[in-house]
Design brief:
- The protein is α/β, with parallel strands linked by helices and about 160 residues long.
- It folds into 2 domains: about 60 residues, Helix Hairpins; about 80 residues, Chitinase A, domain 3.
- Helix content is about 40%, strand content about 25%.
- It has 4 helices and 7 strands, in the order βααββββαββα.
- A hairpin with a 5-residue loop joins strand 3 and strand 4.
- Helix 1 runs antiparallel to helix 2.
- The N terminus and C terminus are likely disordered.
- GO terms for molecular function: DNA binding; translation elongation factor activity.
Length: about 160
């Protein structure tokens, strides 16, 4: 059974970029000399490319592409989440998605990250606590969760309203 944390959500743009990278890496591996004809550095590069190809393949195989989750305010992959750190009052907005696949100025947390894992399933006003690597605990309150497509539409609209400087 697939759960919310098993889903791999990526935007359509990230899917296209990963697909192009996958194709390029496969071409490079196909045209590279075999391990018996290469030096240690070339062998290491080839193995790194093959590992990246496998990682991209796994992402693309299990991806939910650009399909926004329901606009129900529940934190899940594909949602832009805003949280408040309870100790400091600082507010952070981030995308629950695949780290390294998305581009832009929006921070991305995977559902396997400590914050991503604890915030999945939260609704506005819910407080969650998670452990830091140093053993301390950090509490956050989920403020909002908006589907990525709605968030980018709102951001684009706001950018259009800004006067040129």
């Amino acid at each position: 059974m697939t759960t919310i944390t098993d889903r791999v959500w990526i935007s359509a743009g990230a899917h296209e970029r990963l697909r192009r990278e996958f194709d390029t890496l496969r071409e490079l591996c196909a045209s590279a000399p075999g391990d018996q004809d290469a030096d240690e550095n070339a062998i290491a590069v080839r193995r790194a490319r093959q590992a990246r190809i496998q990682r991209i393949h796994d992402l693309l195989l299990n991806a939910v592409v650009g399909e926004d989750p329901p606009d129900d305010g529940v934190a899940e992959p594909g949602m832009v989440v805003t949280v408040r750190y309870d100790d400091t009052g600082d507010v952070e907005t981030f995308l629950l998605g695949v780290r390294g696949a998305e581009r832009g100025d929006l921070e991305v947390y995977s559902v396997q990250s400590p914050l991503g894992a604890v915030i999945v399933g939260a609704r506005a006003g819910e407080r969650r606590t998670y452990g830091l690597p140093n053993g301390a605990e950090l509490s956050v309150t989920m403020l909002t969760a908006v589907p990525y497509g709605l968030h980018t539409d709102e951001s684009d609209a706001a950018a259009l309203d800004m006067p040129n400087r």
